[in-house]
Write a structure and sequence with these properties.
Length: about 575
Amino acid sequence: MLSEYRRLLPWFRKYLWMYVPGVLCLIVTDAGQLYIPRITKSVVDLISAESVDLHRILILVSAMVAIAVFIAAGRFGWRYFISGTSRRIESGLREQLFGHLLKLHPGFFENRKTGDTMARFTNDMNAIRMACGMAIVSLVDGIFMATFILIVLFVNYPALAGWIIIPLPLLVFLVIGMGRLVGNRSKRVQAGFSSLSAVVQETLSGIRVFKTLSREQYAVDKFSEANDEYMARTMSLVRVWGFFFPLINFLAGCTTLLLLWFGGLNVIKGDMSAGDFAALMSYLALLVWPMMGAGFTINWLERGAASLSRIGELLDAEPEIVRVQVSGESAAEMSAKPSGDIEFRGLCFGWPDGQENVLENISFTIPEGATVGIFGRTGSGKSSLVNLVPRLYDPPAGTVFIGGRDIRTFELQKLREAVGLVAQDSFLFSETIRENIGFAVAGVSEARILEAAEFSTIDRDLKEFPFGLDTLVGERGHSLSGGQKQRIAISRAYLTDPEILIFDDCLSAVDAETEAGILSQFVSKRKGKTSIIISNRTSTLASADFIIVLEDGRITARGPHEELIASDGFYRSIYKLQQVEYAG
């Protein structure tokens, strides 16, 4: 269990300056609580005396009040330092995890459920916070108070203490045995919460599908199944605690019973004063908390360890796409911005879990400033090919070059700043149209946003929106048509003014007139910069300098539009078919 906490050592070292005063405040608080029974002893002895000294009693009561204020100040101190530090660690670890996830390649997230990842940002982080805060409090509290109380008992009442602590060894064995039970069940509870979160996230993301197909009951049944499983796992853990804490209270009651019997006999015999008996009763009451605190400590530490293990799974995932170092290169070469011809040399590419290559022996060159079209059936490898250019997926070494330099040797940020990619499935944030267009450029001017809107022709639709550019698009842009979402995404990419702009079939949802308007803007405003257009419409690619035809991951034809429709082949057959469809 404790091995998992090595991951937090840098955070503990960073905030040691807060933990130390926090622990000191905690010890001061405990010392004040432990001193009160001594005052209680004196007060009871004074009251039971034949002549009551009210002045002395008033002084002792005033001291008790002063100590209570002292305890309150110490309690505020440890809450500020220890609990505050645990929240700082939680916040810092969450930021570290988020930053790390942004470095991972897209394929990592394709194999994980979003709801599970979200659960690690919420529920698991809460468990880690409790382990870094209240677990330390209960541990220090328990050790200090239990040690002091036992010393007082054995120094002042050795014979009586031997009887009173008889139940304590049983408690030690109970706490040790509870650790494994709690740890295993905590891991199952955390995993169950992740599964439940994943079901909710997937259901809400696909709510339109459920409603369109009238499958709401299926969603309810799936949620109920995950919810019942989570409840069953939680109840398994609760049953352990339901047995543990009553047993602790029973053992605490046994110590009180032993004190009443043996201590009462001593008072009757005159071997112990009434004040001593009252003080011992107070100490035993204080000893109950360390006994219960041991259980809390085990619980929080086990839950924290289980959560740290789950967080560690994400933090230990290494970014697969990193810059390849080149020996002897200068600082200028390291930070150079990609520019020049794009060249594919014998590219073969396949997915890690696939048996066959998606792309096979791809070789061609896109001159700087040229516009190239890529044509092919669905699944022919078009998107896979262009996703390699900004290294969303990593090409093999020595297969993709920009300006004669392997793209793997460019700084990743510089490479992606130079490449603008607009996917067919255009993602929009739940913000305004203005914020979605200007997302990629901080502090962008109104004029530039309007220019980008004009480039994609979305400016024609602004008058139809209730608040123009300030219209909220809703979750994932649900209030917009498919074509409108694509055009906003095109505006967003254009605003970055990339050296290489890639349209990955992002004109599929717009009509022919709108497409022609966007392509005309392409010609007039992208002169001297490289552009790649993927489309299944031959009319979209007609203005390209040349076209690459992909079939089953291989290049089967290349050349200008006029040349391809003049020769037999797949491109010509689709061109004729589309001409008939348009004519109809």
